[in-house]
Amino acid sequence: MNKVFKSSWLIALAGMLLLTACTSNNSDASKESTKPDATKPEATKQVAEQKIVELNVFVNMPWWSLKDWSGKIPEEITKKTGVKLNVQVATDDKQLPLLIASGDLPDLVYTATDLTRMAVSNVSYPLGDLIKKYAPDFKISKERIGVNTMPDGNFYTIRNAFSTEQEWKDNPKAIPGANGMTFRQDIMDKIGNPALNNLDDLTSVLGKVKAQYPDMVPLVWDKDQIGQNLRINFGLKKGKGFVDIDGAAKYYLKDKNYLNYYLYMNNLYRNGYMTSENFTFKDAQQDDQLVLNGKAFAHGGGNADMTNPQLEKLGAAFKMTQVTKLLSDQAGIPMGGSGWAGMYITKKNKNPEAAIKFLQYMYSEEGQKLGLYGIKGEDWEWNEAEKYPVMKYDFNNAEIQKKMGVVWWGLIGSSGVNEALQRYTPGSQMTNWGLATRAALKFNPALGLVATEPDTEEQVIEAQITNMVTTEELKIYLAASEAEAKAQYETMLKKAESLGLTKLETWATAKYKEYQKNF
Fold first, then answer.
1. What are phi and psi of 296, to 5 degrees?
2. In terms of pTM, does the model score above 0.70?
3. Which of 187, 348, 384, 518 has a CA-to-CA distance to 304 between 20 and 30 Å?
4. How high does pLDDT run on average in the chain?
């Protein structure tokens, strides 16, 4: 997924004023227009015969690249649903809480955070109520209702990016979004193409690069993905949340492999294979620049299929190769999540009937594939034999995505596998890596539902622990010896206990057992 950037309080306040102004300027946003734009070929009879309902949507993701409802895909969605969205993208992560607190919400909110603030009956409509009243033929699977049901018994959204274990099994070409690693093939050739089959081999390769190319950084990480590829190889959660230990929900850092991961990372640092500066990069482009400038050998978080066209454009004399295998028999990708982001129909919505029918279409197979892939026959074809979409355009190209309005709006209702299927490109390096990671998928949706709620003691404890880990984890990575790294790890766990970890885990275990009943 794309890299996320955050702003400040002042921008949040300015964003509120902007949204208020937009609401004022668009006070007739829900007025219905029956006159299509005759200058556009897509102004078909279907559009002319239906009334277009305009709804305001707040996208709570500052990095969201599609700033308006434009391009042929949004236009096609409007033809199918009769709904046009007026888009407002968040300026930072403080804006939505302010809007909720003020009650100044638009018709729709699409967000991956503040879910429990949105999922209350005085803020959003329970979807079950709207379905019963306006869309009785809108069918949602029991599993999806289960992972989205709140303590009050209602579900207020159906989060995207969720698929059951069986759905993954039924779609063998669905590629998980696993953090990769790339390396310079020319340097690999010059050091004799040593084996790269396990984590010991990786250490050895980086050592050879360090010895023969002392001015080169052996391994640089994307600042937002530090250690993520190695966490996969150690079978670990990416961060935050809980793991199942003997049937109880324990904080993720208590996974028995976390210390081994930390010691491996510390060993890389102590041997000079990665630098302390990597942890202080000001943005998520510094690692890319080191790779594109030829100053780094391996790239944690790298994608060869995206990097190599950039290198070719720059006239570089080298290419990157993707590591396309798991480097440990302990590898695992916990799929404990219950989905990522959801669309909420707020109590401020001026036309809840149009909104729920819009969501019904976006959650349908047709709607998902239109939003994610484009227009069937024109932008993609379905390979029936191997069951995956064959794209007729470069769907990784951000400019093409923006021009068409494709991929991103499909995330409104996309299942995990439909999103994952678009990653399948036969013969591509990232596809080969993704196919290797499928064997490491580990499912536990009930555990993924265990999340602290705003303004609770549990959330305060978790926030304090998270902030503490940010500081203490760095001390482990940069420890002067293995013994010191072990001691820092133990210190971190003790500090977590002092902040209330036992109480948090007791609460989490009770929730975990409660959610298990849904499965």
1. -130, 145
2. yes
3. 384
4. 89
In sign, the C-alpha dihedral spanning 127, 131, 132, 138 is negative
Closest CA to 233 of 439, 428, 430: 439
The answer to whether 231 touches 217, Cβ cutoff 8 Å, is no
| β-pair partners for 442 | 334
Bridge partners (DSSP) listed for residue 123: none
If residue 42 lies in a helix (H) or strand (E), which one and from where to where? none
CA 88, distance to chain mean position in Å, is 20
Nearest to 226 by CA among 239, 235, 215, 216: 239
Asked whether 452 and 462 are in contact (CB, 8 A), the reply is yes
pLDDT of residue 37: 43
Nearest by Cα to 293 from 386, 204, 217: 217
Calpha distance 483→147 (Å, rounded): 42
**Closest alpha carbon to 279 in 291, 266, 292, 298:** 266
What is the SS3 assignment for 419-454? HHHCCCCCCCHHHHHHHHHHHHEEECHHHHCCCCCC
What are 317-367's pLDDT values in tens digits? Answer: 999 999 999 999 999 998 866 788 999 999 999 999 999 999 999 999 999
The pLDDT tens digits for 208-230 are 999 999 999 999 998 888 999 99
Distance CA 58, CA 111 (A): 8
Residue type, 290: L
Strands 342-345 and 108-111 come out as antiparallel
What is the C-alpha separation between 20 and 32, in angstroms, rounded? 21
Contact 512, 447 (CB under 8 A): yes
Angle at 473 between CA 467 and CA 478, to 5 degrees: 140
Classified as helix, coil or strand, 459 is helix
Q: What is the mean pLDDT of residues 77-96?
A: 95
- Bridge partners of 321, per DSSP, are 183
Task: Judge contact between 110 and 58, C-beta under 8 A.
Answer: yes
